[in-house]
């Protein structure tokens, strides 16, 4: 099942996707609304968010780096998340800002010392993340700093949280990004350097994961500069299609 959080009539609602109406939301009272009729929130309120640098071999090659020997993880602040169809602010002094289409893994129960064989038992579901980066502020490709990865509005998330059992093989999903209707990025989750079970095993080996924690699993190659006014669509097979528009900051 696909779940979402939206605002309609000034009230936050937890909704599901309407049967026989893809993209439409079903309110708890039975009303069906088009996606344009509501304001979308991130499908969860992230607790701790883990983000991966250089977790696709082709992206490592694109950046002229060797694939890492262990996950290159760093943390992301909650202020950065926005929902489907939201605006992301692009600083006017930035020369290069790019999207990153990523499979986001939502933790469903407390996890500590989890083996890779049991890792999927701790997953609640999956959603789509677009983890923008501002290269002008980048000091370390391997663990980007706060100005690169924790800026307000710079991580669209959603629109749906898809239940774990409705994604039979999360390690064989096509990813793609388009800018103003032109495809610029494509890849598949099978090309991750560290797959979902490996990441859960790694992070839970030294800290406790809790329900609502989020793991952003990295992006394939194909990143390009985006500008105010651009519409960026990040899409993952079976998970969702996340739409975002760039706006100037300050505006």
UniProtKB/TrEMBL annotation:
- Keywords assigned: Metal-binding
Gene3D superfamilies assigned: Fumarylacetoacetase-like, C-terminal domain
Please list the residue ranges annotated as the Fumarylacetoacetase-like C-terminal domain.
Answer: 50-246
Which InterPro entries does this UniProt record tie to the protein? Answer: Fumarylacetoacetase-like_C, Fumarylacetoacetase_C_sf, HPA_isomer/decarb_C
Q: Does the keyword Calcium apply?
A: no
Fetch the Pfam families from UniProt. FAA_hydrolase
Keyword Disulfide bond listed? no
Q: What is this protein called?
A: Fumarylacetoacetase-like C-terminal domain-containing protein
């Amino acid at each position: 099942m696909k779940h979402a959080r939206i605002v309609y009539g000034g009230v936050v609602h937890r909704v599901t996707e309407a049967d026989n109406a893809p993209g439409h939301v079903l309110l708890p009272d039975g009303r069906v609304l088009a996606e344009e009729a509501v304001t979308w929130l991130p499908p969860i309120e992230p607790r701790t968010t883990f983000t991966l640098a250089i977790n696709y071999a082709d992206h490592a090659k694109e950046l002229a780096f060797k694939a890492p020997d262990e996950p290159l993880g760093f943390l992301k602040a909650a202020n950065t998340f926005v929902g489907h169809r939201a605006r992301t602010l692009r600083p006017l002094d930035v020369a290069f800002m790019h999207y990153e289409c990523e499979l986001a893994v939502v933790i469903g129960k407390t996890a500590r010392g989890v083996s890779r064989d049991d890792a999927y038992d701790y997953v609640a579901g999956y959603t789509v993340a677009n983890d923008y980066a501002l290269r002008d502020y980048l000091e370390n490709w391997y663990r980007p700093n706060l100005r690169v990865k924790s800026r307000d509005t710079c991580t669209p998330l959603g629109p749906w949280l898809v239940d774990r059992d409705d994604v039979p093989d999360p390690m064989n999903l096509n990813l793609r990004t388009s800018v103003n209707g032109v495809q610029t990025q494509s890849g598949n989750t099978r090309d991750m350097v560290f797959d979902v079970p490996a990441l859960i095993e790694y992070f839970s080996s030294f800290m406790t994961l809790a329900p609502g924690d989020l793991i952003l699993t990295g992006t394939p190659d194909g990143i390009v500069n985006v500008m105010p006014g651009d519409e960026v669509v990040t899409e993952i097979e079976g998970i969702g299609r996340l739409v975002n528009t760039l706006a100037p900051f300050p505006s």
